[in-house]
Design goal:
This protein has about 280 residues and is an alpha+beta fold. About 40% of the residues lie in helices and about 25% in strands.
Length: about 280
């Protein structure tokens, strides 16, 4: 989707408050030689420093990236990938988008670009890597510096894609009651059942009216929106913690670990154990 870059500076601050940015994980080192397949609700980006990677989408279309190239995988993109040749990569899993799980950049295919074309992003990534270190070195000054570099990285990512011709989406003007319902659905707690009773009390709408408004404004049901958000929370937990799967499942209100694993595999294409093994192999 390539058009002229929009002017987003006119947006009111209240509209910008619905923009979400989260850098779940970044890493620079060996990728190992392995085949894996998954779909996660985050953007994934790799800079190939040595070796190569082949990404194959669900339609069998393969994209290859070699040293000196960036490869960007869209959020919610089902694919398999294979690193080979002692691959060394700079890698990040991240999210940037609007409330309601609307990505800031709507991409429908894997992007490969030369590092020399995305120089600003390359510099920002290297600056972020320089701040990586052991937990015992985690001082306030270092944390403040990291936050500064993190936001500089997000800025570089957005500027890079816009210069490449990609148009950022804009926040959708939702019915006030949809916004209220989204705030309930997207709160940072785990639950598998949609709290229709709380949404009804807050919005003054019945369940049928809520479902109709969501389809009208978001094109998705409350159940779909909630599942996207719950899945994103669990992926974040798997990426950033070593909590046992049974504990994560119980915290997400799954009574049986097998049900949790089945649900995760339906969403991601692989089991949570396999997903965690991929993360730990970095």
């Amino acid at each position: 989707m390539k058009t002229t870059n929009p002017d987003l500076t006119h947006l009111k601050s209240s509209r910008w408050s619905s923009l979400e940015c989260n850098l779940s994980m970044f890493y620079h080192g060996s990728a190992g030689s392995r085949i894996s397949a998954d779909k996660i609700p985050l953007y994934v980006i790799w800079r190939i420093d040595s070796g190569s990677v082949t990404v194959t989408d669900q339609n069998g279309v393969a994209t290859n990236a070699t040293p000196g190239h960036w490869l960007l995988i869209p959020a919610d993109f089902r694919r398999s990938h294979f690193f080979q040749g002692e691959a060394i990569i700079w890698s990040a899993h991240f999210w940037i988008g609007w409330s309601g799980h609307i990505p800031l950049f709507l991409l429908d295919h894997v992007l490969v670009r030369p590092v020399l074309q995305w120089t600003e992003l390359t510099r920002a990534s290297d600056e972020l890597s320089r701040l990586a270190g052991p937990a015992e070195d985690d001082t306030l000054a270092r944390q403040l510096s990291f936050q500064e570099k993190k936001w500089a990285w997000f800025s570089a990512f957005c500027q890079t894609l816009m210069r490449d011709g990609f148009t950022p989406t804009q926040p959708v003007s939702h019915d006030k009651r949809v916004v209220q319902a989204l705030r309930i659905l997207e709160r940072p707690v785990y639950f598998t059942q949609i709290p229709y009773e709380q949404i009804t009390e807050t919005t003054g709408l019945g369940r049928v009216q809520i479902d109709r408004l969501f389809m009208q404004h978001l094109g998705r049901s409350p159940k779909q929106v909630h599942e996207d958000f719950l899945f994103r929370q669990i992926v974040q937990t798997l990426l950033t913690s070593d909590r046992p799967l049974k504990q994560i499942a119980a915290g997400a209100d799954f009574r049986q670990l097998t049900n949790f694993c089945r649900w995760f595999k339906r969403c991601a294409g692989i089991s949570p154990k396999e997903f965690r093994q991929q993360k730990n192999s970095f």
